[in-house]
Amino acid sequence: MNFSGIKDKVLGKLQRRHKEDKRRLTKLVESHKFDMFIVSIILADALVLGLMTSDYFDFYFDRGLFLLDRLFMGIFIVEMLMKIYVYRKAFFKSGWNVFDFVIVAVSSVPFASAFIVFRTFRVFRLLKYLDRFKTLNDMVEIFIKLLPVFASLVGIVAVFMYSFAIIGVSLYGGVFANFNNLGSALFVLIQAFTLDGWASTIARPVMAVYPDAWLYFTSFILLSFLIVISFVMTSINKVVSFFKR
User: Fold this and answer.
1) Which domains does the chain have, with CATH numbers?
2) Contacting residues for 37 by C-beta, under 8 A, at least 6 apart
């Protein structure tokens, strides 16, 4: 008997079977239905994690919620293994795949079961599937485009707040505890920036002792409005240009 020929035939058959199985698995993990299944599992997992924060559900359904959470975790691990098997090294060339892998890895370590905050990271995997929905994908793209504008706003506000905090400490620090040091002055100005009771709880008590303090607070509020309006107008221009492309 030609054992070499039989061996070659068996190996050839196994290789063809392996390629066919891999092709089917590739078709499965790249299908829309598979993506929707994973999205549904992520949403169900998010619901379970939310119920775990409830004293009532955690007391009466603690075991069931824990088993569901472990089941979902097992599905995510199997999903990762399937994709790594299909794509091999190419799996880690995708930023979204690395993002998925890190989140699943972090939330599956033994100590994560004791800290719900680590398991909650799995909900962020929904971000990967936003490109399946045009409206949500547009929102994410707009958000990313506005990040540089927001960073500029933060820089301008930081310099603006710092300058006015120094002025406030210099003028009113000897009398009012709110302006006793730079940290407390910055906190007070942040409150004034949000217009949270800035007139009654911040400005008027200072003006009762320093009548000219209205100039300091009025200048701060007006400049704050200008900064916010500039940010809003710049953001609108960015959004308009995004939809005109």
Assistant:
1) 31-129 (1.20.120.350), 135-244 (1.10.287.70)
2) none
Global confidence as pTM: 0.57
Give the whole-angstrom CA distance, residue 245 versus residue 235: 16
**Model pLDDT for residues 51-64, shown as the tens digit of each residue:** 877 877 767 777 88
The first and second tokens of residue 20, run together, are 């066919």
Residue that is written with structure tokens 């199997």 in the block: 78
Give tens-digit pLDDT for 70-84.
Answer: 898 889 889 889 988
Tokens standing for 197? 């009771």
Please write the tens of the pLDDT for every residue from 197-217. Answer: 888 888 999 999 999 999 999
Alpha carbon distances (Å) from 241 to 12, 142, 150, 229, 244: 57, 10, 17, 18, 5
Residue for token pair 């088993």: 67
The tokens for 71 are: 């089941």
Residue type, 7: K
